[in-house]
Amino acid sequence: MNRKNYTLRELSEELDISLRDLKKHIGTGTLRTIKSGRYYIVSSTDMDDFIENETKVPERNYLCQNYDKCLDKAARSNRVFSCEGCKKFKDAGSHIVFPLWDSVFGAAATATC
Fold first, then answer.
1. How far apart are CA 59 and CA 35, in angstroms?
2. Max Cα–Cα distance, the chain, nearest Å
3. What is the pTM of this model?
């Protein structure tokens, strides 16, 4: 197993996440590390697993009338934005998207929520 030593800042840059989020992931055990002095030792397997699990594409409803407001709010709080969990996510825009899909592709589209 290949292991590499990182400072928190280096690890943050390598994973392209904020220091605050990195500390949270290490604290909750989402990213397994071994601390040795000021360095964090991380195996390449643990890095790969972390990247695979943390880089899921969030579901978003671009047609929602509140999309811009929600995106701005998420950006101000420096968090990943997703429409999942929103009461309006499931049905918002389906009356527009599905008929448009049918007319463009000639096949019925179905909701996956």
1. 35
2. 62
3. 0.47
Mean pLDDT to the nearest integer, 14-20: 86
**Domains defined along the chain, listed by start:** 3-54 (1.10.1660.10), 58-113 (no CATH)
Measured over the CA atoms of residue 14, residue 16, residue 18 and residue 23, the dihedral's sign is: negative
Burial class (CB in 10 A: 0-12, 13-18, 19+), 60: middle
C-beta of residue 13 within 8 angstroms of C-beta of residue 46:
no
Q: Give me 7's structure tokens.
A: 């400072």
What are the backbone dihedrals phi and psi of residue 6, each rounded to the nearest 5 degrees, phi first? Answer: -135, 145
Backbone phi, psi, residue 4, to 5°: -135, 145
Show Cβ contacts of residue 1 under 8 Å, excluding neighbours closer than 6 positions: 43, 44, 45
